[in-house]
# Entry
Amino acid sequence: MTTTSTRPKSLLSVLQGDTGPRPPIWLMRQAGRYLPEYRELRARAGSFLNLCYNPVHAAEVTLQPIRRFGFDASILFADILLLPNAMGQQLDYREGEGPVMEPIRSVEALKQLGERDIHATLAPVYETVRLLRKALPETCTLIGFAGAPWTVATYMVEGRGGNDQAAAKTWAYGDPEGFQVLIDRLVDATIDYLSKQVEAGAEVVQIFDTWAGALPEADFRRWCLKPVLSIVQGLRERHPNIPVIAFPRGVGLNYASFAETRAINAVSLDTAVPMDFARQLQKHIVVQGNLDPRYLVTGGAALRREAERLLQALGHGPYIFNLGHGIVPETPPENVAELVKLVQDWRA
# Structure
């Protein structure tokens, strides 16, 4: 397939300020364990990291849900922790445990990573992007992504996933100057990482801040909002027209902070955001979300009813249909197919 087209890409159109007859749809984690073809390829790859760092495999995984469901956008298959891995932090994915890293809890430990060329390690990711731009349907937008500095830092400091971010908070609250060194380094590396994705063919980027909601407001502004805005500024200095979607999960009223900056094209909403508040945000920024992933597991009338509620509430304005978080592994693929058809058949 060619990479040029005169046919409109609905996701790009919405992010550029145009509202079409129906919202585009893509889903976070639309490539993943709920698909049998993914599980088969994951087994052949031998490990999750092998899957991420093999461009042919990673491109195939990215394309699987596009072939099945015809989403309007495709998000690069990778992982937010590939960046600290490229910076020199050891990373392993253990069955039943998830990501495991050697914790970094001081500036001295951070210095031990040294200065590395992250692009040598991340070159397979950029090659995956290039393969995808050649293989995707001409109306399907390719989304690149990275983790936000705060969320990536929580994994780097804790050494694994967790729900309370205690180690990162302890460092940030007790030694903010030292923690700032880590955040600044992640900001610079993320600008480079996303810029290379755009150069390889990504048409939109999304910044995932999964644990943004763990911080009180003042700390949220310092450790979440400010670093993300610095990334957007640095990225736009190199690629002025690249659309950016931010996903600061769980921040409640602080979602308005992203709309107020005017620097970001869209904000992705978690499942707890009320519709009245979402509609207020929509006056200032494109909104994305926020179907509860459990409705996709439930399916049937409940799924149709909730999807219709979101479409009626937000679909008449600048809106991207998505989930409030990622697809869960037990999701029946037939429910995803039904949702995609419902959204693509709907008209404002």
Notes: The CA atoms of residues 260 and 300 lie 38 Å apart. The first helix runs from residue 10 to 15. The chain has one domain: 10-345. The mean pLDDT is 95.
